[in-house]
Design brief:
247 residues, alpha/beta, 5-stranded mixed sheet, two-stranded antiparallel ribbon
Length: 247
């Protein structure tokens, strides 16, 4: 199955470029906290609040939502989501359990420099454009950007297309990891990805994931790192030797 493109109708002349960036990012990520939204936009706290207020006046986001500790969340309205996708979708509000993954995904996106809608196709968009049910196997399909990472080094393709997986699970046992990898690889290959970036924000360590990935028969290149390693901006991340299908 190949991923169909999603019509991103949130880009409109009635919004300023900054409002458009904020609106697109919020719908893609489902919701963001004020601090991560500010980092995503590269704006101060006061300016971030002003942009959100403008979007709220336009009816594209709702009132700030408190969800556990930390900064309040900004959630697009159903009207806003409909405007972005060009069709109505069911109502959705963030839960406390989702918030851990949601925040980690935004932080990873900001670290990778994928702050425009064109280079980052979120799990929400991937779900909308597919027939899959439940959670998507990975968090985003990311095109090559000007970020400093050289994940494609040593691989036999020109332009990297990454399947970005943000692993927040506290379960570090091998069984669930193998199942997650198998499902991710199948879907990422169908979606036209050629590289997997597995970001370990939970209990699993990159070396554990790399060992498990090396056993998977796939044409995908593979890298794993912690958020600290990504933030450290290494020249390149270790690529696991691929075992091609049929080998």
């Amino acid at each position: 199955m190949s991923t169909r493109s999603v019509q991103k109708t949130g880009r409109t002349r009635t919004l300023t470029p900054r409002q458009t960036q904020a609106f697109n990012g919020l719908v893609q990520q489902r919701a963001m906290q004020f601090d991560t939204l500010g980092a995503f936009l590269g704006l101060s706290r006061s300016r971030t609040y002003a942009v959100v207020a403008e979007l709220r006046t336009a009816g594209l986001v709702g009132a700030p939502m408190c969800l556990g500790g930390g900064a309040n969340w900004v959630v697009p309205t159903r009207r806003g989501v409909t405007r972005y996708f060009g069709r109505s979708l069911p109502e959705w509000t963030p839960s406390f359990l989702w918030s851990v993954r949601g925040r980690a995904a935004v932080e990873t996106r900001v670290t990778l420099g994928a702050v425009t809608a064109d280079v980052w196709t979120s799990e929400r968009e991937l779900l909308v454009s597919s027939s899959l049910q439940g959670a998507y196997p990975y968090d985003a399909r990311m095109l090559a950007t000007s970020n400093p990472f050289a994940l494609h080094a040593g691989a036999d393709f020109v332009e990297p297309v990454w399947a970005v997986k943000v692993d927040v699970t506290r379960d570090s046992t091998a069984g669930p990891l193998a199942e997650m990898l198998d499902r991710l690889v199948v879907q990422a290959e169908a979606d036209g990805c050629n590289t997997v970036l597995w970001v370990c924000t939970g209990a699993r360590r990159p070396e554990t994931v790399r060992t498990a990935a090396a056993r998977i028969r796939s044409d995908l290149a593979f890298a794993a790192a912690t958020p600290a390693e990504l933030a450290g901006r290494p020249r390149g991340l270790r690529i696991v030797g691929r075992t091609a299908k049929g080998a």
